[in-house]
TrEMBL record:
Chief localization: membrane
GO CC aspect terms: membrane
Organism: Aliirhizobium cellulosilyticum
Protein name: Uncharacterized protein YbjT (DUF2867 family)
UniProt keyword list: Membrane
Domain spans labelled Semialdehyde dehydrogenase NAD-binding: 4-106
Amino acid sequence: MPQRVLLAGSTGLVGGLVAARLAGDDNIDLVSLIRRGSSAPGRAIDYEDLCETPERVLRPIAAEGVDVAISCLGTTIRTAGSQPAMFRVDHDYVLAVAKGAKALGARKFILVTSAGAGGPGFYLQTKGKIEQAVIGLGFEQVDLIRPGFLIGNRNERRMWEAIGQSIFAALTPILPGQLSRYGAIPAETVADAIAKRIADVNPGVTVIDNDGLRRLSGSGR
């Protein structure tokens, strides 16, 4: 029987790549949580009201349940427009997905956050808070995916982002020691690692940074 995977964030950079990989896998029954008016591979469920009415939003799959949940949700203060708006996406929406998935029987939660999660600054503090909130829900397995600077084609790409990608890609090979976790990594590498991690059984909490993502994906990039 295929594993039922609930994916949030399938219209974003990493989430879109994960969705594309899972949609072609006969061992996966993919359910995508999307915003109203968006489209994604697999069956799609609108999550506009997820924070307020999770039971109603998840009702279409309540009878079937969920095996694995993945959150690739994330934004920036610049894109969201304010710190509260960013927190709503990166924390509140993610936590609502996690709670809904847990209620539907999910044993594993794969959460994409960021290198340095929990560190100084609003962005990293938010990432650290959602990591701890998800861990506190009591899933059998939690994988914390902490990529560095993501390289890939975003839907809303600006010139400064393209320049930043080029700079980080050039600097990554020479970053020493622990700094390498903040280096550039292709979004495709991250998506490959997440797709492979779905079938892995490793109870407890596992933190996977750039090096771990490359090993999982089989990529040297």
